Amino acid sequence: MYTSAMAAPRRDALIGAAIGTVFVVTWSSGFIGAQLGAGAAPASTLLAWRFIVAGGLLLAWACWRRPRIPPRDLALHALIGALGQGGYLYGVFLAAEHGVSAGVDNLITALQPLVAAVLAVPVLGERVTRRQLAGFAAGLGGVALVVGGDLHGGAPAWAYALPLAATLCLVGATLIERRTRPSIGLIDALTVQAGISALLFTVLAGAGGDLAPPADPAFWTAIAVLVVLAMFGGYGLYWVNVRRSGVGRASALLYLTPPATMLGAWAMFGTTLTPLSLVGVLACAAAVAVVLRAPAAHGRDRRSPAQGSPAQAPVRRAGAGREESDGSPRTPERRRAASR
């Protein structure tokens, strides 16, 4: 029994590490997919067909399963999808279209873990230690080293607010989901979120005359990467990590995505790796290790009495209403027997 008790936390830690690793790789694939499709179609076309395909696959699965989604959960996940996918992705892509370099874009969106961790304290009651805050700050510095070679201007001043708005959209979606705790499962949640995102980007691409997809194989390769890896893998596992370990710890893993993207771009497109960027990779890894090794954060206990909240345990009081250890009331006969 002692061995099994010791093995359970270790097994849980290994599962968490595996999920985190796959999350970092698949989330980073979104940037690779965007680069694959950049030369074949405008960003609005790429985003529209990403969610048309993903939403169609998820909707077909939902039609076969016929899940019951409460109206409250439907409305909540429509809002979460509009923020976490629509707002986040549109802000990032629109910033790139207006001249914000990929390095600056990555650096600004790397504020997400720090902002999410700080806001999770008052909103969700999570605990963030000083060590974790130091880790978040170090992670931001590591990202700056990774993208340092691409930190240049040239975009209009207002365009730099776009990746910041995108970051706030993802943070907002995360905090809303954790605060409201919708009851439906992950697949049903992704179905609703992909559906609302498909609607938003279809209208956006159609309004600009960019909805028709090109026949270029590179476009459909990019769509496959964005749907299978980035959407089902990266975005889906983001919510798995949030539910398993809390907002702060899950967000900290995002510090590893710029290094993973850099290494993927080097392997696929032959981009240059500088010594400074490699130092940044190590800094990001060390920062995430600091955050994850800190004591686990705990939110407010939201359990109801029916769920067994510790506050509902019987209280021993003086007088005739006291209870025995077995939960039965102390009758006069039992009190006389106890006094003998």
UniProtKB/TrEMBL annotation:
Pfam families xrefs: EamA
Keyword Membrane among UniProt keywords: yes
Bias-annotated ranges (Basic and acidic residues): 320-340
Family that this chain belongs to: Belongs to the EamA transporter family.
Alphabetical UniProt keywords: Membrane, Transmembrane, Transmembrane helix
Spans traversing the lipid bilayer: 12-34, 46-64, 76-95, 107-125, 132-151, 157-176, 183-207, 219-240, 252-269, 275-294
Region (Disordered): 299-340
Residue intervals of the EamA domain: 16-147, 158-292
Membrane topology: Multi-pass membrane protein
InterPro entries reported in the protein's UniProt record: AA-Vitamin_Transporters (IPR050638), EamA_dom (IPR000620), EmrE-like (IPR037185)
Subcellular location: Membrane
Taxon lineage: Bacteria, Bacillati, Actinomycetota, Actinomycetes, Streptosporangiales
Protein name: DMT family transporter
